[in-house]
């Protein structure tokens, strides 16, 4: 995985936006975590904007850029977001600027985005690799969510319901570059990693976010 190992040589430090998506509990964070562990200097994360209030200890520009709703809406109007969502009345978004900051460091910018966000990325013709992480089955997904013990019973049910719809998007043409079934974590991780490395090997030009 030479191209993923490249650290110091500027010419080898190719950058690309890598988007992971898929149902809650499918294993996106687990796979991203392994990429980060194995390629600590190659993987970067952009700082998102949000209208929610900072929690104790959170700093503006570190965990998030904390902005008033008016400012967030101005940014939407000005097309400054690659994707954004309103979750329980609070806005969250990934700005072009934040992603470019990571890409300009010669890093891969890794995002975890919902299916709607992926559609937005495709509609805007943003150059990105989009990888859908699929659970082996909904039964296995449910079992993993329960074992994680981070959700209430109602939240688990909601996630399983949403997962059924999200899984249907796997068959949509031109939405995802790769669908990885996360049966065994190491195998799924290797499949995603190999795909990214091959993409980087293919593209000689410096990565440009906009067409
Ligand atoms: N291949 C696997 N086999 C068994 N368990 C797994 C596998 N991959 C991940 N898990 C476990 O399943 C649970 C869900 O994984 P993870 O938190 O990575 O999902 P996620 O897609 O990031 O979810 P969310 O979108 O809710 O953050 C975790 O407890 C994780 O340790």
TrEMBL record:
GO terms for cellular component: cytosol. Transmembrane segments: none annotated. The keyword Kinase applies. SMART domains: GuKc. Residues 15-197 form the Guanylate kinase-like domain. It comes from the Eukaryota. Belongs to the guanylate kinase family. NCBIfam families: guanyl_kin (TIGR03263). This is guanylate kinase. It comes from Galdieria sulphuraria (Red alga).
